Amino acid sequence: MKPDDCSYQIYLNLLKEELIPATGCTEPISVAYAAAMAREVLGVLPDTCTIEASGNIIKNVKSVVVPNTGGLKGIAAAAVAGIVAGDASKKLEVLGAIEEAAKSQIKEYLKAHTVTVLPAHNDIVFFIAATVKKGNDEATVVIEYEHTNIVQIVRNGETQFEKGDGSAEGGGLTDRNSLNVKDILDFADSVRLEDIAEIIERQVTYNCAVSEEGLKHDWGANIGKVLLKAYGNDIRTRARAAAAAGSDARMSGCEKPVVIVSGSGNQGMTASLPVIEYAKALHVSREKLYRALVLSNLTTIYQKAGIGRLSAYCGAVSAGCGAGAGIAYLHGGGYEEIAHTIVNALAITSGIVCDGAKPSCAAKISSAVDAGILGYHMYQNKQQFFGGDGIVTKGVDATIRNVGVLAKDGMRQTDRQIIDIMLNRTSSKQSAGNES
Predict the structure, then answer these.
(1) Domains contained in the chain, CATH given
(2) How far apart are CA 10 and CA 95, in angstroms?
(3) Could you list the residue ranges that cross the membrane (predicted)?
């Protein structure tokens, strides 16, 4: 693939667009960004704040610690952090530079002011509307489909900004329809290092720092540490532990930024850290590592393109497959090895559900990475899953499409049920039924 090819530019743009820093889990950070922007539009510290959010946002914010808040969780905490101390100009790093004194101000504001959280009355999977009021003045900022995709800004009933048809699903992101495994591998092999070195090196630096934090200190359920203690220090375990430890820290409020993939820090760490660990063990060149990470990241982005930003399907599965592809590449694998690795891995872990961001994400990441590694070793041992085995069909791209349909359409009701369970709606319905 040549630099002046259209596909080359598309794939390069995807990396620039998707591999960006974020401080904290991206859904609460998106809430904080919307609230910080609304406060900026209002021009003063508001008396009240109302957040309308889709079920998937509520699901992904409910149980995760918001960074730089002193351990607070939930939508109200994320919104107030954005209002009181957020810097909207930094987007997904909106809460990245909060000083210690501001943390107490966030808690004081939460105690003294009303923050209302309401379910959104629409079918948009990713929806946040932040409305802030001070006296007779109010401002609303609406985000749809993607974490920083503001589609509307309104102040005192007057629309200051509104996206037209470009606000449809995808949020104006680079078109993903041309993605396929063969071209992704071609791009990884041929991309000029100067075009991707800064992007990939930032991913290595940021994500390794968070992983090290997770292994050194007490975060979440300490899955990374447990893996090393229980299973030893072989490369397969180290690869799983590195990614899990990053999630341990991040889900529990670690204030270090990570480089995300497809809107998710957990996916960004899962797609990168196992590949980095294998690169160390195999003593490959920096160039080989960069190209393997390009492959892993784009493979993850490709799978998520058919699923969407949020779903009942665990995104770590997609990233674990990406990591498996990157590991196969580090071992000298070509298209056949990589394609079989992806299909095998998808057949193993595509049943993992997403029940929001929280400490158990680290354990799911470990399983997803393990499936990616096993998928590669299956091929090495002349074993594979065949078309017709469950959701697996002939060809890696066709199997990826099947998974996209399963995750986006087939698991829609599963997603609703998960949200009901998390919000205790199911027990309420059962009680009502029992009473009748």
Answers:
(1) 22-167 (3.30.1330), 181-419 (no CATH)
(2) 31
(3) none
**Residue 244 Cα distances to 101, 211, 237, angstroms:** 31, 8, 10
**349: Cα separation from own chain's centroid:** 17
Cα 188 to Cα 11, 134, 181, 201, 349: the distances in Å are 9, 52, 10, 15, 25
Beta strands in 7-107 (DSSP E): 21-22, 48-53
In DSSP terms, 143 is beta-bridged to: 128, 150
Dist CA 185 CA 370 (whole Å): 22
Q: SS3 sequence, 200-227?
A: HHHHHHHHHHHHHHHHHCCCCCCHHHHH
* Tokens at 5, concatenated: 């090819």
pLDDT along the chain (436 residues), means of 10: 94 97 96 98 97 95 93 95 96 92 92 93 95 97 96 97 66 85 98 98 98 97 98 97 98 96 97 98 98 98 94 96 98 98 96 94 98 97 94 96 95 93 63 41
| Calpha distance 274→235 (Å, rounded) | 9
Pair 365, 243: CB distance under 8 Å:
yes
